Amino acid sequence: MYNRISQLLKKTVTDELVTVEGWVRTKRESKTVCFLELNDGSSLKGLQAVIDLETFADKPLLAKISTGAAVSCQGKLIPSPGGKQAVELAVDSLTLHGEAPAESYPLQKKRHTLEYLREIAHLRPRTNTLGAVARVRHAVSYAIHTFFNERGFYYVHTPIISTADAEGAGEQFQVTTLDLNNVPLLEEGGVDFSKDFFGQKAALTVSGQLQGEAYALALKNIYTFGPTFRAENSNTRRHLSEFWMIEPEMAFCTLEGNMALAEEFLKYIFSYVLENCAEDMEFFSTWIEKGVAETLQKVIDSPFVEMSYTDAVTELIKNNAKFAFPVKWGSDLQTEHERFLTEEVHNGPVIVTDYPKEIKAFYMKLNPDEKTVRAMDVLVPRLGEIIGGSERESRLDLLTERMVTLGLKPEDYWWYLDLRRYGSVPHSGFGLGFDRAIQYITGIQNIRDVIPFPRAVKQADF
Ligand code: 4AD
Ligand code: MG
C-alpha cells in the first residue's frame, strides 16, 4: 500500500516481491518483451515494468492495456540494462483495474497545451506538469506550517462565511438562501436580510485578517492559511476568484518587523522547495520557464530592497514613456510598474512602503504626513506583487474616522473596533497569495494552471 514509485526508484535491487500500483504512461512492445512505464504521482519519473512475453501467458489481458490504464504489477526489482534508470520491475503477475480506451482517452502520450489541459482539469493531474505542481503545492504548504510552527506562531482557523468585508472593497460573493425569484423586501425598499439564513447579509470571506487580528491580540503571533474569495472582475493571468492565502499577524510589532518576517518567510519557502523538490524544479526550469530555479536562488541570496511609494513613483515617472498606464503620485501601481521596479530599477525583490491612503484598505496605520499609510507590498521579478501587508491602525479614533470617510459603518465593525478599545497595541501582518507563490516558484504563466480546479470570471467547471 505504501510502495511508492519514488521510493522504489531509489532502491537497489532486492529479492523480495514488490507490488507497484499506478497508471500506464506508455506501453512499448517488441516480439519478446512489453515495457510499461508506470506512474503513481509520487515522482516525475516512472518505473519501468518489464513483461517477458515468452513466459507471460495472458496476452489478451496485455492487449487491453494502453496509456491511462490503472494496473498493479507484482515482481522483483532488477538492475535495468538500458542505463536510463537504475532499476526496473520484472513482472510476474499483473492486474488490470481500469482500462483507458485509446480511442477516447483524452491524454494521449504527446505534449498538450496548458489551455487544453484546463478543459480536462479532472485528468490533468496525470500529466508531468500538473503532477509536479501538485507535489510542489503540497511541499510548500508543509514548509509554511513548519516555518510558523518553528517560530511560535499559532494556526488560527478563521471563518469562510463572514459578515464583515475585510478589505472594505465590496468585492464579495454573497451567501444567501433567499429565493432569488421572491426576495423579501423592506418597506423602505431594499432586501430584508433579517429573513435570510444568517439574519443578516453574509458573504464568502475576502481575507481572514480581521478575525486573525482578534487572535493576534490574544496569542501574540498567529497565522491563517485558508481559501479566500474575491468577486473582482479582473481577467488576468494572476487573479483567481478563489485562492488560498496565508496571513500572519503579530502583536507588539511594527512595519519593520513585518517586512523582516515577509523576507525571511519567502526565502524559507523558496529554499525548502529547492532542497526538497529538486526533480520537479528541474522539470520547471527545463520545460516551463528557463532557469526558474536560479531565479529562486537569486531571491534567496538578495537582500530585499525597501523603497517608499513616493520614491518608487519618482523613479517610475522618469520612465513613463515605457508604460501603457503612465504613473503619477496617487495612482495605484499596475503589474507593469511593479515589474519595472523589480526588473529594471533594482533587479531583485522590492518592498514598497507607505502608499497613499486613498489606494489602500481602511485598516492601515496613518502616517504623520496624514497622506500615506504604513502599507507594504512585496514585489518580485516576473510577477509583481506577491505579498500585501501593513501595520494596522491601532488607534480607535483614527480608525473610526477612516471608516466613516470611506463610507463604512463603524457599527458593522463594532467587534473589530473593540480590539482598539481594549488592550490595543501596535500590530502588523501580511497576506501571501499561495497560488501566486506557486506560480512564481514553478514559472507557470497562468495562475489557473497552478490550482487544481480554478475559479475565475466565467469559470467554475468541475
Ligand atoms: O493585498 P491583498 O488584497 O491583502 C489582503 O488581503 C490583506 N488582508 C493581507 C493582510 O495584510 N493580512 O492580498 C494579499 C495577497 C496579494 O499580495 C496576492 O499575492 C494575493 O493575496 N491575491 C490574489 N491571488 C490570486 N488571485 C487574486 N484575486 C488575489 N488577490 C490577492
Ligand atoms: Mg494587495
Can you describe what's shown?
It is a single chain. Helices cover 30% and strands 24% of the residues. With 462 residues, the chain is an alpha+beta fold. Helix 4 crosses helix 6, helix 4 crosses helix 7 and helix 6 runs antiparallel to helix 8. The protein is elongated, with a radius of gyration of 27 Å. The mean pLDDT is 96. The chain binds 4-amino-1,4-dioxobutan-2-aminium adenosine-5'-monophosphate and magnesium ion.
In short:
With 462 residues, the protein is α+β, with helices and mostly antiparallel strands. 30% of the residues lie in helices and 24% in strands.
Features:
462 residues; alpha+beta; eight-stranded mixed β-sheet; five-stranded mixed β-barrel; elongated; binds 4-amino-1,4-dioxobutan-2-aminium adenosine-5'-monophosphate; binds magnesium ion
Residue share in helix: 25-40%
The secondary structure category is: alpha+beta
Largest sheet, spatial ordering of strands: 6-10-11-16-15-14-13-12
Mean pLDDT: 96
User: How much beta, percentage-wise?
Assistant: 15-25%
Sheet having the most strands: 8 strands, mixed
Bound molecules: 4-amino-1,4-dioxobutan-2-aminium adenosine-5'-monophosphate, magnesium ion
Give the overall silhouette: elongated
Distance between the termini: 29 Å
Low-confidence stretches: none
Count of helices?
13
Over the alpha carbons, how many angstroms does the gyration radius reach? 27 Å
